[in-house]
Amino acid sequence: MKTVHTIIDEILSVEGGHSNDPDDPGGETMHGITEAVARQSGYYGPMRDLPIEYARDIYRGRYVTIPRFDQVVAIDPDIGAELVDTGVNMGPHRAAEFLQRWLNAFNYDRRYPELFVDGRIGPVTLEALKGFVQWRGAEGRKALLCALNALQGARYLEIAEAKPSQRKFVYGWVTKRVMQ
């Protein structure tokens, strides 16, 4: 069963070590943590030296606890893992929006309240997710994961179309994130 710890380990394995690609808008990264995020999180040393445990703490706080994705993990570990991964790559706000949009789209007969898509996970979104999972079961969880990945892939395509320099990253984004 996936836990927050194993989810972070999976992300660390995808993100790799040090990178400083001039075409990456995130700039210099270590363990997938951008320099800007590291500095906002209190790390001021050279990015190459960012300890992996420091990166884990950043992931846990910024991409799991603050956006309440740990509460999604408690409801469904796979959906929670997807939100954490998307949040790391696109921002937690966008990941939460993706979830809210799909929960609304799947809610054709109003089994749970319509969600205001604000990109924030709160009690209403968590209750809607619980209601969806209870209503649709294993097949519904699989459908929601596919739907979340579809939006993620569509966003990567939009990025590549808008900024051709990002095309060199698209294959990796799809194979390491969308196909997971």
Succession of helices and strands: HEEEHHHHHHH
Tell me the structural class. mainly alpha
Q: Which of globular, elongated, flat, extended, rod-shaped describes the shape?
A: globular
Q: How many helical elements?
A: 8
Overall number of strands: 3
Domains (count): 2
Radius of gyration: 17 Å
Tell me the distance between the termini.
Answer: 16 Å
Q: Return the average pLDDT rounded to an integer.
A: 95
Helix coverage percent: 55-70%
**Spans with pLDDT under 50 lasting ≥5 residues?**
none
Share of β-strand residues: under 5%
Largest sheet: 3 strands, antiparallel
Spatially, the strands of the biggest sheet line up as 1-2-3
Topology of helices and strands:
Blueprint (H helix, E strand, L loop, with lengths): L3 H12 L2 E2 L9 E2 L2 E2 H6 L11 H14 L3 H7 L1 H14 L1 H15 L16 H40 L4 H12 L2
Antiparallel strand pairs: 1-2, 2-3
Helix pairs in contact: 1-3, 1-5, 4-5, 5-6, 5-7, 6-7, 7-8
